[in-house]
């Protein structure tokens, strides 16, 4: 995860925080919405992120799952800025733009931000 984040110029602690919030770093996790893996990436999102890196991404593979999530955060950050990027990762960019942040999204952003801060200071949840 750290390698993928550095390769795509994203703070590794942020990638770790999102992954911990999303799945507890469990690659076999599948959500009721069909999001898979450590970064809880939808297969369609992995296909979209493939266009940014120039090769197919398999969201069921650990490295590709992490790469898809990292690149998505990077793309969203460029489009919206850091706070809304994390919100959009959770809620969806179109929904954030159309409806603003839901209460659950605000809680998600707060949790990821707190995890990010703690991880930057050396905290490891496992």
Automatic annotation (TrEMBL):
Domain Transglycosylase SLT as annotated: residue spans: 6-107
PANTHER family: MEMBRANE-BOUND LYTIC MUREIN TRANSGLYCOSYLASE C, SOLUBLE LYTIC MUREIN TRANSGLYCOSYLASE-RELATED
Protein name per the record: Lytic transglycosylase domain-containing protein
Organism: Nocardioides panacis
């Amino acid at each position: 995860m750290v390698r993928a984040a550095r390769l795509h110029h994203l703070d590794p602690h942020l990638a770790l925080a999102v992954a911990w919030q999303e799945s507890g770093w469990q690659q076999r996790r599948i959500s009721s919405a069909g999001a898979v893996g450590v970064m809880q990436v939808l297969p369609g999102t992995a296909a979209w992120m493939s266009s940014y890196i120039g090769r197919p991404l398999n969201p069921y593979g650990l490295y590709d799952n992490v790469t898809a999530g990292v690149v998505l955060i990077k793309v969203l950050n460029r489009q919206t800025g850091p706070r809304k990027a994390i919100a959009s990762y959770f809620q969806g960019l179109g929904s954030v733009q159309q409806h603003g942040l839901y209460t659950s999204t605000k809680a998600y952003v707060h949790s990821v931000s707190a995890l990010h801060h703690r991880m930057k200071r050396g905290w490891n949840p496992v």
